Backbone:
């Protein structure tokens, strides 16, 4: 394909991915509001502490991407700050999809059409409302991007090198994921020893040391472990439901399955879990491009199941509630759906048939049902923000925060 045609193709592909991502809930960008920690911590900390907020840990570790955006937002009036947050969150979420499509991942998936296909699947992944275009959860998208960078081909230009270094550092200092990525980067370097892989490993290791030090110094007093309420039956319900089945039938429809006798007796979630694990094991053994992503997904899922954020109920019970804790499944979900797509075109005939059937059901039901997210009602943020911008120093203003909460800020 001529260079000009390639450039046009990729530009069109990137545009399509951005439009698909935008279509899931346009109001999140068009009528932006703070989400969770965006309004509880990132903006208030930047507003009150200024540049020193950049190195404040949260829940035991650094979250640099949120802090940088929040500090930069101080140049804007309050009414426009959620829009900046949403635009940056959209960009961070779009980046892994665009990187998947790009030639940088050609060593993993040689077919450009297939890369566009799986990038589209990631854009439209079901059961991902909690991580959709909000700055707080952008660390999950950056972690996925960091995984792709570690697994990708060596950069061919200075711009690509700067991109890799910048986003490995940013991801490494935004959440604890560099600790999970470290063994993957080590294995990548051990498998293919090159200056590129050594550099990537050193970056991941450096950020892991920084985050580990921060966690050891502050984590014990800022992050209490919840009661898990773990059991074998809940384990299979979690893997069989929110992970393996949610992209197939849609997250909210799993509650209907839970009314079935076969689900309540346990054999249905056990069966779904067994099929999912066997397909992943087959992919791990037969498809080299999926080995490191599957290892990373396993580490992330294990960490999420054993060390989730605190909850008013037992953590594993909360995972079974729709739209609760779904961020812990986002990266495993992406790897699972990429695994299904890959196995549909590779492997033995029974594996292709099984994976293809599951993927067909996912595209027919799960992706269609979860394409659009529920619209957040306007709770008067713009009016309150305009009041804050014109108020006198010392004025106390209460701002609405998605989903369904408030924050009080003193000017």
Residues:
């Amino acid at each position: 394909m001529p260079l000009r045609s390639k450039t046009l193709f990729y530009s069109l592909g990137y545009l399509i991915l951005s439009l698909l991502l935008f279509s899931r809930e346009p109001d999140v960008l068009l009528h932006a509001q703070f989400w969770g920690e965006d309004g509880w911590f990132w903006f208030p900390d930047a507003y009150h502490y200024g540049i020193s907020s950049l190195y404040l840990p949260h829940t035991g570790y650094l979250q640099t991407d949120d802090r940088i955006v929040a500090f930069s937002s101080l140049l804007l009036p309050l009414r426009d700050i959620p829009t900046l947050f949403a635009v940056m969150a959209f960009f961070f979420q779009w980046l892994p999809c665009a990187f998947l499509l790009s030639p940088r991942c050609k060593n993993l998936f040689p077919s450009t059409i297939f890369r566009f296909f799986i990038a589209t699947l990631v854009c439209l992944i079901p059961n991902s409302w909690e991580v959709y275009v909000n700055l707080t959860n952008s660390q999950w998208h950056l972690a996925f991007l960091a995984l792709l960078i570690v697994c990708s081909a060596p950069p061919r230009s200075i711009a690509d090198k700067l991109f890799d270094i910048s986003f490995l550092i940013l991801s490494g200092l935004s959440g604890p994921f560099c600790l999970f990525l470290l063994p993957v980067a080590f294995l990548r370097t051990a498998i293919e020893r090159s200056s590129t892989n050594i550099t990537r490993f050193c970056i991941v290791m450096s950020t892991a040391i920084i985050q580990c030090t921060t966690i050891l110094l502050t984590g014990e007093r800022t992050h209490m472990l919840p009661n898990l309420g773990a059991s074998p039956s809940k384990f299979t319900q979690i893997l069989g439901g929110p992970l393996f089945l949610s992209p197939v039938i849609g997250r909210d429809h799993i509650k209907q399955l839970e009314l079935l006798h076969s689900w309540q007796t346990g054999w249905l979630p056990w069966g779904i879990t067994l099929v999912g694990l066997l397909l992943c094991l087959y992919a791990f053994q037969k498809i080299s491009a999926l080995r490191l992503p599957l290892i990373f997904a396993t580490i992330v899922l294990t960490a999420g199941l054993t060390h989730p954020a605190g909850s008013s109920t037992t953590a594993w019970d909360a995972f079974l509630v729709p739209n609760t804790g779904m961020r812990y499944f986002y990266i495993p979900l992406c790897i699972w759906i990429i695994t299904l797509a890959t196995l549909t075109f590779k492997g033995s005939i029974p594996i292709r048939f099984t994976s293809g059937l599951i993927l067909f059901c996912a595209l027919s039901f799960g992706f269609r049902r979860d394409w659009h997210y529920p619209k957040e009602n306007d709770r008067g943020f713009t009016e309150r923000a305009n009041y804050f911008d014109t108020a006198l120093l010392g004025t106390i203003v209460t701002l609405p925060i998605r989903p369904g909460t408030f924050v009080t800020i003193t000017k």
